[in-house]
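Recap quiz, item 2
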Amino acid sequence: MTASLLLTEQTLAAQRPVLFRYALLQLRDSALADDAVQETLLAAWQSAAGFEGKAGLRTWLIGILKHKIADHWRRSAREAVAPDVDRADDGEAEEDDYFISSGHWNGGPKAWADPEAALKQQEFWAIYEVCQNNLPPKMANVFMLRELVGLDADEVCREAELSEANYWVIMHRARLRLRECLEIRWFNNTLQDKRHA
Amino acid sequence: MRSCRNISALVSQGMDKKLSLRERFAVRMHLMMCTRCRNFQSQSRFIRKAARRYVDALQSRLDNKS
């Protein structure tokens, strides 16, 4: 049982932040998220023999955490509001809206005035949230696993059951969409104010 | 020459993996001439930064609530 020897408390604790962010996005409650992570680490500790080392520690832990989160939704009978991350949506051909047939931008990214300043404004975050929520569910899930939870690209692929090629397409579309949304709703609108500020 | 469609996809990929030497060269050459793709690159980086700030803020907001 060499695998279990590798699972020290420190190696488990090192995964805590990622697990917590994952749980937080699903549960939207830090106390609940903390509980779920705690239970996950405990379960992992107790069943270290179940860890085969093949899939990677984080993937294995997230697998356990997903069960804990699912348990929570079952218990609290709030399944109606559980995020439906498995709903498929292809959005095929939508990327074509962003480019014309020659491959040039259709419109395309304009220069943004002082994006750093936007990060300090509360109104910006409301817009950011709207834009992120506007992504189709599956795309939002992939984007969040990568950029919010902080998984590596190949971990996201395993987690969302995506081929590598699909992953690139989805992440690219997510960036195109978010960019466009932020440009329309924030940067275009605030250009004027910024200049006079 | 590669199109903006193609280059912007490589820019996206470059945020998550190391591109090949050939790809990096193509991207660099293109970006020198193309403002929109350059904007796309800096905006993608900005979005990454914003996403991290967002989750940090979400976390502390929830921490304060509990």
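Chain B has a mean pLDDT of 91.
The two ends of chain B are 56 Å apart (CA to CA).
End of item.
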